[in-house]
Amino acid sequence: MEIEVSGRKVILRQIAAADTVPLRHSILWPDKPESFVLIPEDDSGLHFGAFLGDDGNGPISVISFFQESLPGAQDTHSPQPAARFRKFATESEYQGQGIGSELLSFATNQVKAMWGVNLGWCDARVSAMGWYVKRGMHELGGNGNAIFFKEHIPYLKMGMEV
Q: Nearest CA to 117 among 76, 89, 79, 91?
């Protein structure tokens, strides 16, 4: 899919898991080895990227989705079909321009069509919570009481209907 963001042509498309790794590493965990951003389920996920025009360079934003129920949903009689997104990253120089928002929307629609899910969720860094709220997500588990840590970074579970 081709869109225009801030006067630039941006292409949104499905990509291979390996194409997400350099950006995952450089933005999310630059102080860790590249292997730290690999996910065992990468081969079964759907991965998406945003690219500037047809410049042939790598993605400037990436996101990965996995068929995974919300923790605790297995305890209900009819859990909602869900997809978890992970390792969502946008190059620093392109943050705040709407590219990540467009990629999240595009990828969520693709995942809904392909997997029939109606709930999207993630482990969101607390520092990014406001960004997710602006895009229609809400905290799962309520009132900041469910903060947990990955390494030294605080996270919350957030979700949205898709």
A: 79
Superfamily of domain 2-161: Gcn5-related N-acetyltransferase (GNAT) (3.40.630.30)
Residue type, 47: H
DSSP 103: H
In sign, the C-alpha dihedral spanning 12, 14, 20, 24 is: positive
pLDDT band, very low/low/confident/very high, at 90 (cuts 50, 70, 90): very high
Check if the beta carbon of residue 10 is closer than 8 Å to that of residue 103: no
φ, ψ dihedrals at 53, nearest 5°: 50, -145
The whole-model pTM stands at: 0.89
Alpha-carbon distance 74 to 96, whole Å?
36
Phi, psi of 148 (to 5 degrees): -135, 170
Predicted confidence (pLDDT) at residue 72 exceeds the cutoff of 70: no
